[in-house]
Write a structure and sequence with these properties.
This protein is an alpha/beta fold. It has one domain: P-loop containing nucleotide triphosphate hydrolases (Rossmann fold), CATH 3.40.50.300. Helices cover 38% and strands 27% of the residues. The protein has 10 helices and 10 strands. A hairpin with a 2-residue loop joins strand 1 and strand 2. The longest helix has 16 residues. The radius of gyration is 17 Å and the shape is globular. The mean pLDDT is 93.
């Protein structure tokens, strides 16, 4: 039986007096690609921020590799292999592509392997290799998304959290990003994908959870959710 990589139990997160996440529970097993879908404002991104220590949890627990990580800082979690690509990409705009990738390996000290891993990233994203000395801030949104994902891979993730990777991208670039997500997963990385494009997310995933107004309202095998009339009506525009 696959081991549990990430387990969230009764998670509550509040901004001031507003409860954005209301007792959410889910788990991600080793080797899975799990999708967390829902409308804008459902609490998906807030959930990821709480998992990665960017937003304090008001209640509940978060376990990573069988141990509670509630209250740990993002820097500690990165060292343990829990890595997030944030919504909005968050690239270092005044640094080159290569420098951004090197920053992804900031917690590592295996210099020879770091150089090999940069070349691996360039193999996944040939466009980044072509422009390796270009400043990140001069790139398109899609190229910056590729860079953000490549930078995350440099941290050697055991669990990779992706927050809205297709947001604001052209249809062609959306196709490329989902192709890369599938490739990363097929190489053995466990992935938790938060995505408003419910159809594409569920097509990639093995399992899915549906969030609405800060709560998980449905869960199950991704194919079953994809064919569920309620999901199709609410999130697939049918």
């Amino acid at each position: 039986m696959a081991k549990t990589m990430l387990k969230v139990t009764g998670l509550k997160v509040a901004y001031g007096g507003i409860q954005a996440v209301k007792g959410v529970s889910f788990e991600v097993l080793e080797g899975e690609l799990v999708s967390l879908i829902g409308a804008n404002g459902a609490g998906k991104s807030t959930t990821l921020k709480a998992i990665t220590g960017l937003q304090p949890a008001a209640a509940g627990d978060i376990e990573y590799l069988g141990k509670s990580i509630k209250g740990q800082g993002p820097w500690d979690l990165v060292k343990q292999g829990l890595i997030m690509v944030p919504e909005g990409r968050g690239t270092f705009t005044r640094m080159t592509i290569t420098e951004n990738l090197q920053m992804g390996a900031f917690v590592r000290n295996d210099e020879a392997q770091i150089e090999l891993d940069i070349e691996k990233v360039f193999g996944i994203f040939p466009r980044l290799k072509e422009r390796r000395n270009q400043l990140a801030g001069t790139m398109s949104g899609g190229e910056q998304q590729m860079l953000a994902m490549g930078r995350a891979l440099m941290a050697q993730p055991k669990v990779l959290l992706l927050d809205e990777p297709s947001m604001g991208l052209s249809p062609i670039m959306v196709d490329k990003i989902f192709e890369v997500v599938n490739d990363i997963h097929s190489r053995g990385t466990t992935v938790l994908l938060v995505e408003q494009n419910a159809s594409r997310a569920l097509q990639l995933a093995s399992r899915g959870y549906v969030m609405d107004s800060g709560e998980v309202t449905m869960s199950g095998e991704a194919k079953a959710l994809l064919n569920d009339p309620k999901v199709r009506a609410a999130y697939l525009g049918e």
